[in-house]
Write a structure and sequence with these properties.
mainly alpha; about 40% helix; elongated; binds heme C
């Protein structure tokens, strides 16, 4: 079973590289922009999850993104009508990001 899933992973990795798609996670892409662990974690040796405060330090309190047209409404993922949401609810940095809103909605939009 383990070998099988490792093979699948390898195949997925190959497909990504053939398609020229980004297979790296957010932290690796930031490393590509010259941004180090400490810039997100605010400690030399990270032990805990990075916090939104660090993201906002560089990106500001609200990044403008295009409105997303859902079936019955326009949605601004950076301005939830339910109150403020931590950046890292959606933008995970070392694993696949998550469209947090889809705990309840069904927005067909991927998080970078
Ligand atoms: C030290 C500054 C810095 C910190 C801290 C930082 N970023 Fe970034 N981020 C950048 C820069 C520079 C870029 C590349 C230029 C751009 O797209 O704005 C970038 C790009 C991005 C992108 C779009 C590009 C991509 O590859 O997806 C996302 C999404 C993002 N950052 C989210 C975050 C989140 C979430 C955090 C906190 C966990 C964070 N950033 C922390 C500087 C920073
Ligand atoms: C509810 C999920 C969610 C939360 C919470 C969230 N984002 Fe995003 N973010 C998205 C989605 C979805 C996109 C892609 C938008 C698009 O491309 O239309 C995005 C795009 C971005 C980008 C790239 C913008 C660009 O021009 O390419 C940055 C940078 C970013 N977010 C930073 C943040 C920061 C900083 C926070 C916290 C203050 C945050 N996000 C909170 C879902 C989220
Ligand atoms: C773009 C910002 C960013 C960068 C750069 C980054 N991290 Fe993270 N890190 C996070 C976020 C957000 C989490 C929360 C969990 C996740 O995203 O997977 C996290 C989680 C972690 C955790 C897990 C803590 C826990 O208890 O779950 C460790 C350890 C960690 N990072 C270490 C590092 C190291 C080492 C580097 C540099 C090689 C690094 N990180 C670079 C944003 C970042
Ligand atoms: C815990 C469940 C839950 C989560 C998580 C959630 N929503 Fe909602 N949302 C609802 C419910 C319930 C309604 C009201 C019924 C409806 O309009 O669908 C609603 C309504 C909305 C509306 C319409 C509000 C209005 O004033 O007309 C928007 C826009 C919306 N949500 C966006 C978001 C976004 C963006 C996120 C993620 C940042 C999110 N929701 C996360 C449950 C949730």
């Amino acid at each position: 079973m383990k070998t099988f899933s490792l093979t699948l992973l390898a195949v997925a990795g190959l497909m990504f590289s053939f398609l020229g798609m980004a297979s790296e996670h957010l932290a690796e892409r930031h490393a590509g922009f010259g941004i180090d662990c400490v810039d997100c974690h605010l400690t030399e040796v990270p032990t805990k999850r990075a916090k939104s405060k660090a993201c906002k330090g560089c990106h500001g309190d609200k990044v403008d993104v295009p409105l997303f047209q859902a079936e019955e409404r326009s949605v601004d993922f950076h301005e939830s009508p339910h109150g403020s949401v931590r950046c890292t609810k959606c933008h995970l940095a070392h694993q696949q990001p998550v469209m947090y809103c889809n705990e309840c909605h069904a927005f067909e939009k991927a998080v970078p």
